[in-house]
């Protein structure tokens, strides 16, 4: 073992003395660090947006504009006592008549509504533009106020019993809207919405009810509430698929397998846990995660070039310079030389993965804040657990690099067999970039059984090893990276067995090419 360790140490020293290796390492470090800063504005430009800008300043400005245009609103108002016969009983109503043109009606409604808001709403304690429920209550109040003004525009002579019933309903709706908006009674807002369409399925109302249960005081922002709504709808979609026994794969319904059923049940548990504990992945956190993933993929491109050069020239370069002869004539078995070179290659894969993960995490945390990097949520024994972001990011990236190791082992094998650096590097690089074209061909041809037995179809393992990555803001490795056909339905077990057999064949071929063939 001491000779093997010495050979491994010697191999690492030889690689560290190559200028091209350090040039690529430095480029990889710089790319890992600066890419998140370059991508930040492109991906996160609307992650922190506020959907509505409604505050005291805006309402005052609109009120003053309406007042300037309309003048004294009282000159458009008439009053008269009306009588209606409802259920054989006479009802008196002190009614209002608005004498307004179409343009004047809009200005009057805006002036009267905003005067009431400015006189009664507590802007200091409940800023409208910062909370989802306040904004929706504002629009409900505005709509109810407008409806009542519209009914009061009807001539006195044409106001029938039907008009009175509609007026009574509109008044009740306005009272509910007042309770919701001015006093933040969101159960009243829910009742207002249910009254608007009592015969419908009211899916939106059921979602709204859950939002109110989570945020009874209406303190959550629009962004936070929209995240909750999206999570609720996603959770409901999963539950519907479970009840129907189907699996929605990119819009295609397929029979639900037991393993997939377990995954979906766990996703429901994770979503319900995130909703209950207010730890849903925000748009900013999701965007930051995507930024880091893309940065990792860009950096890995340089790592690919570096490792292909190392793997492709590992044997052939020493053949060309004649340095291999000094090892062969030494009292060292060839399999130890072979193993030391293979271990050096694995070391560079691991070292590159760790370096890229650490630097991209640091860079993303610096430009977007540490809180923008959420943990990985998963289920173990039916209980929701979390994994630290840095650890998961490394493991996810490493799982994505399984395909990279297979390609590099291919380059190493070709180098051992052909003993030509150009051929080894050229073929390996061609195989990597042919993968993208192959993915397009697969999409055109559709799924064929023989495609499952090609290496390209079994390279996307990260999403299978970590099936809940999307609930932590991550993109599928196949969508975000260079390797693998994202979204294939092959099982993890099949792909692992396939790759294990492929790696064994490549290692056997490389070993045979290096150990049994003569050194010229």
Could you give a short description of this structure?
By secondary structure, the chain is mainly alpha-helical. It has 20 helices and 6 strands.
Explain what you see.
This protein is mainly alpha-helical. It has 3 domains: 2-47 and 284-515, no CATH class; 56-216, no CATH class; 229-276, no CATH class. It has helices spanning 2-16, 19-43, 56-70, 102-120, 132-151, 161-183, 186-196, 203-214, 222-244, 258-276, 283-313, 316-321, 324-328, 334-368, 389-400, 402-418, 421-445, 462-465, 477-480, 492-515, and strands at residues 77-86, 89-98, 246-249, 252-255, 376-380, 383-387. It is elongated, with a radius of gyration of 34 Å. The two termini are 28 Å apart.
Kindly, what is the distance between the CA atoms of the first and last residues, rounded to a whole number of angstroms?
A: 28 Å
* Beta-strand content bin: 5-15%
The number of helices is 20
Helix content: 55-70%
- Widest sheet: strand ordering: 1-2
Unreliable runs, pLDDT <50, ≥5 residues? Answer: 478-487
Gyration radius from CA atoms, angstroms = 34 Å
Largest sheet: 2 strands, antiparallel
What is the molecular shape? Answer: elongated
How many domains, in number, for the residues?
A: 3
What is the H-and-E element order?
HHHEEHHHHHHEEHHHHHEEHHHHHH
Helix-strand category = mainly alpha
Number of strands: 6
What's the overall average pLDDT, rounded?
82
